[in-house]
Amino acid sequence: MSLILANIIGWITLHKRMVAILAAIVLIAVVAFVFTQCGKKAPVLSEPDIQRGEQAVKDGNDAELKSIIVNSVANEKIADQVAANGTADKDAIVRETQQTWGNANREQLQVEFDKRKQ
């Protein structure tokens, strides 16, 4: 067993540069993976909102789908603002979000809803 360990240590000693490069590549890959997994994710809709949204999609009810998305986006922005400075103007955030999604077509609403229900 000690001979195998000695051979491994000897190989690493002879190939220091290659081992260092491989270690750096692995470290960069791990850091990149952690950053991508810890990035900001789309807010998740609650189960009742998902069910209401799926029914709205089936019925072709764009107004209900807009309402669900607007509330989801507004809640996310309110949480971000409260976390940032401790206050939130909910009415202004809801108006801003309604303006953003007010002219969205059915395909845009469907894409956003699908993204948020995951």
Number of self-contained structural domains: 2
Helix content: over 70%
Number of strands: 0
SSE string, helices as H and strands as E: HHHHHH
Could you tell me the strand content as a percent range? under 5%
Low-confidence runs? none
Overall 3D geometry? elongated
Distance between the termini: 51 Å
Largest β sheet strand count, sense and barrel closure: none
What is the average per-residue confidence, as pLDDT, rounded to a whole number? Answer: 84
What integer value in Å does the Rg equal? Answer: 25 Å
Number of helical stretches of at least 4 residues: 6
Structural class: mainly alpha
Overview of the structural elements:
The chain is mainly α and 118 residues long. Helix content is 81%, strand content 0%. The mean pLDDT is 84.
Keywords:
single chain, 118 residues, mainly alpha, 2 domains, 6 helices
Tell me the layout of helices and strands.
Elements: H1 2-14, H2 16-37, H3 47-59, H4 62-85, H5 90-101, H6 106-116
Helix pairs in contact: 3-4, 4-5, 4-6
Please summarize what this structure is.
Helices cover 81% and strands 0% of the residues. By secondary structure, the chain is mainly alpha-helical. The chain has two domains: 2-37; 47-116, no CATH class.
